[in-house]
């Protein structure tokens, strides 16, 4: 919802309605003319305005009628892009020529052709954008307006050269999928369909389930009618779909409320329409197709690799359409953080546009456009602290410090900046249950006070303690080089700063490799699965071996011609070859085995030091318990799905620290933290926070929050026991 004031000019061909002009287009909007039907809206009656065409007039001549919301006639609601173009068209409302955006004018020219559309709600015309008081009571009604409307019209914009092709192609896909699924169910061949092709479970992660999804997808493809089956993977059609979903409509933050809350919705592009239900039916198949074409059966020539268009559809649409589940229960702070890449004309709408997705009564925040952006963002965090009782560490000045809103406290996230956290934030799920791998502060409840300092400043006084200090760090993971180069640089920089070899023990008695591996895998979804952790350990050792072997490592950065290699298929193929080589000679495990051998020797493990015993020792150190040698994992006969799982699991772990800093603390705990920290910054444990916080001391012992960290030895309440023993001093930590 944009907040540009609407202005109007007299149309010399029509009669002037002075009271309407004063009411609708004047700042303040408080004038009431009892003789005129278009009075200011009465909040106590929840009144709304609805647009309708004047009988016998042109398509651009409209009237606005006021109704109590509960007594309003059936109406459609328009979902569209305001746009920032200075170009304006004009429509005639109540005899006045009103400038509107070109996109709104185009939408109004098309929507009346949709069946039974007599009344229409469009925010730019139905809300006085220059009246803050009116916006404050109309915006909370929008959740009800879109939920009550007979149909939400999702206007993507005017037709383009290939948009008609895209709309028809999506319609055909939906029809083919529905027909195929119905046929399979009639013949009792619908196994796996319900689990893999529903809107709430379209993204398949488990390797075994991926194989099932592939079989189910192929059975559906086999049912496609012949005329469409020959065009189902046509490059031109997929290019048109790609372009359709690159339209700016899909980036608007308001569509999350407008579309999610719609009972019935129609996608409109030019004169073409598509039921939203058809799009939702198509989407799960597209996401599974990625796996079928690129993952499960990469050699299957029947599924061309040009289906990368599907990734675009999944990226733009899954987040939006899956947000249907937000109607159950979700937290405002979570939604605001995960929608930073959506666009909003007014930064406050990054919060206000999401309120319709929060159950009424589950937040104290109400739209108030008289507040500053900083005040609105502060209120989101304070509301979360009060209602959930935990501090979620998504704030901090470590990232984009120069781009943050002026005066925004360091402990409050800037929702105007698209965040790319180096370490993944910990969250509670939408039902309020803990959904994290750690609880650094144990069960201690959050205890805090907030002191506001006009105009926008705010102090957070929260209970906790300072437990450590940054002693050395490497920012190698901030650059764009491959993971193997980054790891090698990290180890070299840490060795130089601490004057230790990576094969030595830390002061905690833990070997470097163990500390790094556990720091990487602290938040891994597979943390409690020994076999999965074994695969991660193998992947880690392969990565470490390649990072230490310059000759072999060259393949990862360049090809035979010396050109940069970025193609994932090439990387994947090479990784499969490496795993095959591990089964026999293990050449790429030699460098880490040498490191581990020194560790085993120093710990008195005996004289027998075969590769199997050394790896088994590492296996035991990282908490992996297998029935046989640790080499059972790399020596098994992996199929395609297992190869992919090994590669993707390793990549997923590495992505968690991409853009982070490798840190060693004064007590020689190792971990990863958000960028922007410095040697000397302190590590804090905040009661009611799941991970440690890195902060910087400023005047009068006040702290600037740099960001969260993940440190081995701090993640599971270990330091809370030491606090009870008197090793640390509990205090009020004051963040500015």
UniProtKB/TrEMBL annotation:
Superkingdom of this protein's organism: Eukaryota
Ranges where the Heterokaryon incompatibility domain occurs: 75-258
Pfam families xrefs: HET (PF06985), Het-6_barrel (PF26639)
PANTHER family: ANKYRIN REPEAT DOMAIN-CONTAINING PROTEIN 39 HOMOLOG-RELATED, HETEROKARYON INCOMPATIBILITY DOMAIN-CONTAINING PROTEIN
Protein name stated in the entry: Heterokaryon incompatibility protein-domain-containing protein
Lineage: Eukaryota, Fungi, Dikarya, Ascomycota, Pezizomycotina
